[in-house]
Amino acid sequence: MGRPTILLGTSEFAAKARAELQTGGVSDSRFVSVPQGYERLAEGAFAALVDDVVRRIVSLLGSAA
After folding, report:
1. Average model confidence (pLDDT) for the chain?
2. Where are the domains of the chain?
3. Sign (positive/negative) of CA torsion 60, 33, 14, 2?
4. Rounded to an integer, what distance in angstroms lies between the CA atom of residue 33 and that of residue 11?
5. At residue 5, what are phi and psi to the nearest 5 degrees?
6. How far apart are CA 53 and CA 9, in angstroms?
């Protein structure tokens, strides 16, 4: 069995990423997106976004076991 993999991308490419995952036979639940323009967020909002993304990734990795 392969290693658990999670695709991380911006919301701008979410539809393309989900299509690629489906084509590859991988669940689309293995995709985590961040909003386009995240680099312009204020420091506090960026930190909150990072915390949320890390929680989602850890949750997906935990479900891969």
Report:
1. 87
2. 7-63
3. negative
4. 5
5. -130, 140
6. 11
